[in-house]
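lol ok so funny story. i was supposed to be doing the assay writeup but got distracted and ended up predicting the structure for this chain instead. priorities right. anyway since i did it might as well share w the group, maybe its usefull for someone
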Amino acid sequence: MSIVVWEWQNELNIYLPYSALVSEQLEAARNNNVKVVPLGGIDPYLETFEVNIPMMKQKTTYNGKTREIRRVLIDSSHPFARGVKWEWNFKHDHWFPYNTEVAKKIQECADGGGAAPLQLPTLLPGYSIDVRTMIQTNVNTGFQRKIRRVTCPPYHNPGPSSRPTRSVQQPPVPQQPARQRVSMPTSSQRVPTFPASQPASQPASQPAAAFPTAAQPRPLSSTQPAAANPSRARGRPAPAATYPQASQAASSNASRAGPSSGNSSRAGASSSSQGTPLSNTLQSIIRSSCTAYQQIGQTPDVCPVCQNNMTDPSDYTTHPSLTGLQQDRITLKCNHHIHTQCLHALISQSSSSTSFSCLECQRSYGVRSGDQPTSGKMAVKVDNSISLAGYEQFGTIIVTYNFTSGTQNGVAYSAHGFPRTAYFPDSDEGNDVVDLIKVAFKRRLIFTIGDSVTTGAKNCVVWNDIHHKTSMRRNDTYGYPDPGYLARVRAELKSKGVEQS
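and the output, tada:
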């Protein structure tokens, strides 16, 4: 019989497991049609997080940030089912678990005697694990970390009559304090966002922890074309060009309230909180992106938010109707279907007032903007006298960012370590990536305000999960060669709605 493990996704799109108790309670909630699960009722360390099961998202209650979750099926031979986890050491006594797939491969290697180091190019690119010495090695840099095998409560499915705890069935309505960029859970641990299972380019902007942290919503991206490529002169350095960002993003969503989490609901029940009307910009985007729903075939389609049939009412019946839409069921241009009130509830949980994306295929509608401080400047120049490892036949694009300390939304922030410089090959692909980065900078997506991983300082300008190579030294952790780097940056930019048409 398969056993369910629930996992959450960190900033580098790596899934990490919840504890056995949290997994069991989430599965029990799903079996009993409970839609919103406050994790603090299961584990006090997770009191600032809740899980929306129909949307498959984890939400930080005080700032509305969300991250993806998933259900993974394992068999009874899996180490998790036998009460075993494999973990890697960050530093001192900070250990973090490998996910279900990697843990299984490590255990199989250990059971087989571990004669040769384990390499998993798909699951653990750039790393090897030696179960005899209990060491994980970065094959590019040679940097090593300890690993360990530990016992834990075994994962198992809830019984057929199991129900989630009382606190899961009756979640409290989260209070919404003033908007601020805070991503730490209540745990005191502070560690970097890049786990040992992923090659790093630049420390991510938000600290990872043994418990889930805040995250961006599903990509609320843009299908608008990126800026056209500038002329590229080869053989001589190009003059530096400065790209100031947009002075201000569209109206802030600081006051938005998400869909109901005050009472768990079953199919057909109503949301218990009143949704906030959407901006005129978003309503216009929605009106231009949909048609009236028409059922095709004999089987009704299912709404991806409330999980009800499209022929049935939405669960979010108290959310206001969308201006200009007479129907309450629509089909988006991507041919996926959703209740208009469920779409309203979904958008209300996002941090963008100018875009949304389809839950089914991630197609984006509108243009996403961030909260990068408006004081920033970005300068780009080309130096053909230097090259990067792996791109010796090309010159180097040098991107320099500069920010000054200031105040945003009434909160003072500091700018440490600026100017910052990043390097890209002056190849066609490198230029394409830099063009996209220019667009992302103008949309205020390259940096954000948060806690510094390196210094621990709060409310400062930090990277926003679009990784940059900040070193020209060969084989440096934040340098080249790294054959997959440009493709990864494209994917990170696409997740924020920045891609070529």
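DSSP finds seven helices and 25 strands in the chain. The helical segments are 20-31, 100-111, 166-169, 280-287, 340-348, 428-442, 485-495.
back to the writeup now i swear
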